[in-house]
């Protein structure tokens, strides 16, 4: 297993930054190589990625989520990975985002890329693009303020700005007036 740790300070309030991170379906807008993420349930996502001509699909589950503090996940199959993102207020208008991810490269090409620091570089770029994404918008595209403990969702009933999960859809698809 390899470990990546990256930190970035975002010029957005803690709540806004955290709320945006809970909008998994928006990740392809700032994550290189992520084609699509479908929010299947409150705790399960389905990912489609294309990296260096290799397309993969896999599921990941949220194992812990505490509003304005932490989101932790693990893949349910290959590629094996676990990780956590934590959020800390720097001041009223800035948030420190800390990402730690453990992953297992699959195959010779991924192992070579890992040794060359390509995965770390990609994650660093993803965080920079997330920073630009939320700062350029000035607000989140939606939110889910529920809690997850040991992989079990415990909804709080609170939604940010009238946006959040549409219960009829079962995942995040808030209206986006800025699109």
Structure keywords:
Alpha-D-Glucose-1,6-Bisphosphate, Chain A, domain 4; 179 residues; disordered C terminus; two-stranded antiparallel ribbon
What do you see in this structure?
The protein has 179 residues and is α+β, with helices and mostly antiparallel strands. It has a domain at 2-20 and 63-143: Alpha-D-Glucose-1,6-Bisphosphate, Chain A, domain 4, CATH 3.30.530.20. It is 21% helix and 41% strand. It is built from three helices and eleven strands, in the order βαββββββααββββ. It has helices at 14-21, 107-115, 118-137, and strands spanning 2-10, 34-39, 44-51, 54-66, 70-75, 81-91, 94-103, 147-149, 152-154, 165-166, 171-172. Strands 1, 2, 3, 4, 5, 6, 7, 8 and 9 form a nine-stranded antiparallel sheet that branches. Strand 6 and strand 7 (94-103) form a beta hairpin. The chain starts with a strand and ends in a 7-residue tail after the last strand.
């Amino acid at each position: 297993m390899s470990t990546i740790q990256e930190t970035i300070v975002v010029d957005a309030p803690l709540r806004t930054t955290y709320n945006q991170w809970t909008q998994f379906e928006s990740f392809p807008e700032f994550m290189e190589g992520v084609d699509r993420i479908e929010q299947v349930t409150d705790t399960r996502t389905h990912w489609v990625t294309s990296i260096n001509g290799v397309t993969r699909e896999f599921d990941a589950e949220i194992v812990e989520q505490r509003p304005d503090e932490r989101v932790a996940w693990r893949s349910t199959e290959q590629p094996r990975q676990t990780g956590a993102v934590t959020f800390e207020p720097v001041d009223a208008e800035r948030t420190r985002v800390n990402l730690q991810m453990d992953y297992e490269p699959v195959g010779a090409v991924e192992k070579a890329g890992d040794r060359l620091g390509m995965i770390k570089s990609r994650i660093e770029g993803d965080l920079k693009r997330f920073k630009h994404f939320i700062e350029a918008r000035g607000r989140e595209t939606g939110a889910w303020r529920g809690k997850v403990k040991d992989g079990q969702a415990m909804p709080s009933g609170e939604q940010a700005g009238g946006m959040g999960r549409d219960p009829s859809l079962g995942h995040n698809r808030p209206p986006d007036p800025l699109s």
